[in-house]
Amino acid sequence: MAFYVYVLASRQRGTLYTGVTSDLARRVHEHREKTGSGFTRRYDVTRLIYYETYETPDEAIRREKRLKRWPRDWKIRTIEAFNPDWRDLYEDLNR
Questions:
Q1: CATH 3.40.1440 applies to domain 3-93
Q2: pLDDT digits (tens, 9 = 90+) for 1-24
Q3: What is the pTM of this model?
């Protein structure tokens, strides 16, 4: 089983949300349907723009906590190295 650390955005360089899950497609769908976190619902943060895969939940949780402590400009540089156009990657998960 894989575990994921993911980042959602409201728009390019907009509000960011970092989370962890064992089912990335399901969790992003919940955010998109506004049944996920209150934060993502309040700020309309629904676009999957970044994710990483880990083998254990402990690794994923450690990485999530580390990313959440990063300054915003570090997060943006990491996102843009992975996804320079800030394309919504959610549709790629269902292929």
A1: yes
A2: 999 999 999 999 999 999 999 999
A3: 0.95
